[in-house]
Amino acid sequence: MTEAPVPAPPLPVLCWACSKVLDPFDRYCRHCGKGQGDHIPWYYTRWGILVASLLGLGPFGVFLVWRSPKLSSGEKTGWTLALLVLTGYVCWRLYQVFTMMNAMVGMALRGF
Ligand SMILES: [Zn+2]
Q1: Which of 1, 8, 17, 49 could form an SS bridge with 34, CB 3.0 to 4.6 Å?
Q2: 96: number of CA atoms within 13 Å, CB side?
């Protein structure tokens, strides 16, 4: 006769945001109200950080990176570097556009 394996008692679960002990089946923290597990806010997921950074936050997406419970510290460093490089690239391109527009305006004012 075989018995179904008894699941190990779950380890105490800590809230990723406030570090207080939660019931293992809590979906939201009882202390600070932050979602847990699958209920972590979308902007702390990898795609959420990417979309929020590209569509508006820009370099400030780094704040989401460092607050996210979904990323390891190595991943946070990588994301931070990637966002800084991307920001530098965008600034450089904007500067190029600015200098080109400046030259065109100058030519137009001189009557070509
Ligand atoms: Zn909490």
Answers
A1: 17
A2: 6
- Return the structure tokens found at 88: 């530098």
Cα of 21 vs centre of ligand 1, distance in Å, is: 8
pLDDT tens for 33-74 read 999 888 888 899 889 999 998 898 888 999 999 999 888 889
How many angstroms separate the alpha carbon of residue 22 from the centre of ligand 1?
8
pLDDT tens-digit profile of 76-90? 999 999 999 989 999
Q: Distance, CA 50 to ligand 1 centroid (Å)?
A: 25
CA distance 82 to 57: 14
- So where are the chain's domains? 1-40, 41-112
Torsion, Cα of 64, 67, 73, 77 (10° steps)? 30
